[in-house]
Fold these 3 entries.
Entry 1:
Amino acid sequence: MMTVAAITLTSCLGKTETPGQAAGSVEAPAEAADVAPALEQDLKSGDATTFTARINAIVEKVKELVGKNPGIAKEYLTKAQDFLKNNQQQVQKLIGGSEEAKGVIDMLTNTNPVDFLKSIAPNINLDGLVDKLPEGAKDVVNQIPGLGK
């Protein structure tokens, strides 16, 4: 199910131009640490088009990063997911009745980061990501088929 959601997400967000880009280019933050502040700024602006364009840009950035450095791609994606989960009510209020935006954000927040990365780059090696986790998390991940040792 996660893979289907991630594939659907990438196809929904794989557009070359978003409404926000047409009016003015909205880019993904250069660093993972800047993801939440950029989304916060867009959320506070009250502009759903810009917010949605930023989400699209972030997913495109993750797609770009996954081939270069899966660990950074995962961190980047996780920052976006955490922000969306922690601000779910405000995000839903901002995007209002946009079913497409709701669907994309729901899929993004409900998709495991590793599954998402595997769906957009099935040949990447994610083994190193497990080693960077805290001990308790490593034990859990190592029990997951396809990820564990």
Entry 2:
Amino acid sequence: MKFNTKLVLPLLISIPLLAGCVTPGEDDPNAATKQGAAGGALLGLTMGALIGDPELAVKGAIAGGVAGGVAGSSLDL
């Protein structure tokens, strides 16, 4: 299996940053929105990385982040 090194490094850097956007134990009124956006962005980025198209990975991360944020905001209401 061949890895695209230009995409692997940003992916490895972004995982801890996105995972730390919500601190457990705090009462954050927007926690579900943040978790949905981070999860959707990671899912879209991973799907694009698996296909091997960097442009698709970026578009997938944006679309996944927006969709996850919208889905999470319904829980925050």
Entry 3:
Amino acid sequence: MKKIASLSLLLLFSSLLFGLDFGGLIKNDATLLKNNPAPFMFENNLDTSLFLKIPFNEDGLSYFAAEGLYRFQTYDGEFTHIVDATVLKFNFSVTSPNGLFTAAIGRFPVSDVTSRFFSQPSDGVYLNYYSPGFTASMYTGYTGLINSQLTTMTNMDAYNLIETPVYSLSLPYLMVTGGVSFPYVFLNQTISTDIWGGIALQGVNGNIAEASFVINGPLTATVFHTTSVSGSLVSEDQHRDFGLLATTNITWYLNTLNMSFSGDILYASEKFSTLTATSGFFTSIPWQNIFTTGFTASITPHRTMYLETGVDAVFSATDMQYEGIYLDGNFHWQFFSDTAIILQAAHFFAAENSLPATKISLGAALSF
């Protein structure tokens, strides 16, 4: 109790001395989803989130941050209340003539360099050193205390999670990672790489490791690219599966109405595995046995509006069998500085061996 009281006094003193930043967001998303042959399903998520940031010094690089969320969810006529502490973070930074050292402890989002293998909140310790010549980072964390109703991890159905109406614990993994990044190595290209290890705990089967290599930078003054290669290794009992993920993106930026045009290619082998489930527009699924190639265009017709549309051809990676065409678009209108409306729509035009799907979502957000 004395430690808690001392910590509370420290936060109060810091807020009085260096200022206090706080606010919130109210957001509602109404969604119609149809996966043939099932009928249309309706889902509505009303989120209220609050954030707080207390700096410990004048430059604001050392601070305490907290974010909480309450969701009232309606799905297929059923109501659910969800509560989560999405961020509880102490951040400490020390500057030097050659760089910046940062240490963070608590709950906060963490991601690998591709944002495809692991990209979610976790409870742990993060260390980072930044200098003009390179950046190095390390992280160790635990995933078993986060709310699985808001953060979906793969293979959750195979584990007997403790579920409650408000808060459900997630898959217990001990995560360990380290990575480095070298900016402007040659031709203004930046090279980044990291290695992740996930140790399964409390009866979960399947330790997992992943390594990624990313190169990105300009090809011309207005054309930029990002290319990544990742490998995953899952060890379960005496069985091991190795998978491969490769992606490339080339984007052309125009000054006229902030237009951009990009082309993408993605290949994921049948055995490629992730820990964070893919947050696709239709559903959360891992990237496995898929090859896609597509095109995306975006435009800002007004400083308050953003419009984007894309199309992708989808194939099976094992035999290159055509699966269908995925078409999507979204419109974002921030008609006041603190108010926005988001409209999203997508349809999967399936081949004979696949099932079509449709999704339409309308959202509104108010910040305060």
